[in-house]
Design goal:
The complex is a heterodimer. Helix content of chain A is 0%, strand content 47%. Chain A has no helices and nine strands. Chain A has a five-stranded mixed beta sheet with strand order 1-9-8-3-4, with no helix packed on it. In chain A, β6 and β7 form a beta hairpin. The radius of gyration of chain A is 13 Å and the shape is globular. The termini of chain A are far apart. The mean pLDDT of chain A is 91. By secondary structure, chain B is mainly β. Chain B is 0% helix and 50% strand. Chain B has no helices and eleven strands. In chain B, β4 and β5 form a beta hairpin. Chain B is globular, with a radius of gyration of 13 Å. The mean pLDDT of chain B is 94. The chains are: A mainly beta, B mainly beta. Chains A and B meet through β4 of A and β5 and β10 of B.
């Protein structure tokens, strides 16, 4: 399974944009890039996912490099409620499609 | 619409005891999953069920069994609990396997002494 590399932690100020990076240099053509986040003492929550093109939804934007070896999750205006562990995950589109979680990036949001 | 529910929320077992973790979803999803999360780590897939009547192993299936009781319910059984199984267990569901969002339950915190 292809692996992802994320910084252990990042800090941001409230109401400022946050860019969370993810490297996935061994990504294959059928791997989707998923982002989930986990708030303290809760189960993970889906944020966004994409294959090749940049994606936007109500929570965030996903910017995917042209060679697909890296991606960036963008929170446009961080709030205190966005403090969580963010997981960048590659999921292969085959019969055993699985989410393989790494250790993620812990985002701290300062008021 | 409760989403994914899990019981119990907390459990303490002695080594060698058995127990079953229950999971149910009310979203009419076909696929369900069991994960475990050890302290400071990401989640690891134990077993999953792509559809009613099927189950498959994930990354860390040893020491566990599962039953897809019906479309709504997916249970995880520890036949003989070991301290290494101390963890938080999460159940999840999705419309299908593949490129679909997974919805997670609140977790069961299990301690094996």
């Amino acid at each position: 399974d292809a692996k992802t590399t994320q910084p252990n932690s990042m800090e941001s100020n409230e109401e400022e944009p946050v860019h969370l990076p993810c490297n996935h240099s061994t990504i294959s053509g059928t791997d989707y890039i998923h982002w989930y986040r986990q708030l303290p003492s809760q189960g993970p929550e889906y944020v966004i996912h994409g294959l090749t093109s940049n994606v936007n939804n109500r929570m965030a934007s996903l910017a995917i490099a042209e060679d697909r070896k890296s991606s960036t999750l963008i929170l446009h205006r961080a709030t205190l409620r966005d403090a969580a562990v963010y997981y960048c995950i590659l999921a292969r589109m085959d019969s055993s499609y699985k989410l393989i979680f790494g250790s993620g990036t812990r985002l701290l949001v300062r008021p | 619409n409760a989403g994914v529910t899990q019981t119990p929320k907390f459990q303490v077992l002695k080594t060698g005891q058995s127990m079953t973790l229950q999971c149910a979803q009310d979203m009419n999803h076909n696929s369900m999953y069991w994960y475990r999360q050890d302290p400071g780590m990401g989640l690891r897939l134990i077993y999953y069920s792509a559809s009613e009547g099927t189950t498959d192993k994930g990354e860390v299936p040893n020491g566990y069994n599962v039953s897809r009781l019906n479309k709504r319910e997916f249970s995880l059984r520890l036949e003989s609990a070991a301290p290494s199984q101390t963890s938080v267990y999460f159940c999840a569901s999705s419309e299908q396997t593949g490129d679909y969002e997974q919805y997670f339950g609140p977790g069961t915190r299990l301690t094996v002494t």
